[in-house]
Amino acid sequence: MLQALGLGPAEEVIYTALLARPAASQELARQTGLEQAETARILLDLETRGLVAVATEAERGASDSADCGAGLQPARYRLTPPSVALAPFLVEQRNALHQAESAFSMLVEQYRSTAAHSAGGVVEVVVGVEQVAHRFHQLERGAQRELLVFLVGAPVAVPRDDADMSESFALDRGVDFRVVAAKDYLDGPDVARDVRAAIAAGVELRLVDSLPLKMVVSDRERAMVPLDMDSGGEPSAIVVHRSGLLTALVHLFEKEWAEARPLHTTNTGVHAEPTVDQQPTEGELEVLSLLLAGFSDRRVASQLDLSIRTVERRTRRLMDLAGADSRLQLGWHAARAGWL
Questions:
Q1: Is 250 exposed, middle or buried (0-12, 13-18, 19+ CB in 10 A)?
Q2: What is the pTM of this model?
Q3: Are residues 172 and 208 in the same domain?
Q4: How far is it, in rounded angstroms, from Cα 287 to Cα 313?
Q5: How many domains does the chain have?
Q6: What is the rounded distance in angstroms from the CA atom of residue 179 to the CA atom of residue 313?
Q7: Which one-letter DSSP state was computed for residue 24?
Q8: What separation, in Å, do the N-terminal and C-terminal C-alpha atoms of the chain show?
Q9: Does 261 share its domain with 286?
Q10: Residues 199-225: tens digit of each pLDDT
C-alpha cells in the first residue's frame, strides 16, 4: 500500500512494524526478519525523509536503561504522525498522476488531429488471434464509463473465459455494461451459466432474433468489429475510432437495444421477456418484495446473492414500469397493480 507513496518493500515493512511499537530500534530486525544493518540503514533513511524521528527519553522508557546497562544505548525511533509525514508524498503522487493524465489527453488529441487527415486513422485493421484478443482486452479494460456489446454465435479469437475476465474488471470499476445477444449465442455450451453469472454481476442483457455483426464499443470512442470468417482465413477485425462510422455503430446498437427483450434469471434458467409483456420479471419481484419489507439495497443483494448494481438496475426498471419517481410511489403502484 505504501509503495504507491514511494516507499520500498523493506521500508514499508519497517514503517508498518513501528505502528505497533511506539519506540523501537534493533528489535525491529528480529520482528521483521531483516538484517540489523539493513534495519539501521532504513531507519536512518526514514528519519532523513521525515517519516520517523528519534524517540525522546520519556518515549524510550525506563526499561531501556536496564536493558542496556552502562553501555551505549542504541537510538530508538518513533513514527512521525502519518497525517503530517505522508501528506507531501500523497500530494506529489497526485501531481504526478495529474501530469500523466494531461500528457495522455494531449497525446490522444494529437493522434485524433493527425488521424482526421487520414482514412487509416479512422479504421485500423488487426490480424491474428493474439492481436485481435489483445485489442479486445484493451477496449474492455480501457473503458471508463460504458461498454456496448453485440454477441453473435461462438467466440472465435477471444475465448469466453478471457472475455469474462475483462468483463469483471470493467464491472469492478463501475462501468455501465449493456449487451445485446442474438439467439444463436445462447446455443453455445455453458452459455446459460455464464449469462446467469453476468446478470448477477450487473451486466444488462437483452435478446434479439438476429444481429448483423459482432461488436464492442468502448466509451463511444472506439469500436471493434470482427471481419468475415467464412473464407477460413486468420481471425481479423477492424478497430473504428471516433468518426461518422463510429456514430453509426452506436446508433445501430441503441436501435437494437430498444427493440430487444430483457433477459432475466429464474430457478429454472435464463428467460427472455415476451415482447408485449410489461410486467415485472420474477427476479424483479423478488427484489421488490424485499425492498417493501424494509431491506436496504445491500441486504437485498446479499439475500438474493446479487450485486448491488443488479439490485439497482432491477429497481430502476420497476420504477420505469410503474412510472414512479420514488420508491414510495413504486410501493403504492405495486399494491395497486397486484404485483405482489
A1: middle
A2: 0.48
A3: yes
A4: 10
A5: 3
A6: 14
A7: B
A8: 48
A9: no
A10: 888 888 898 888 989 999 999 999 999
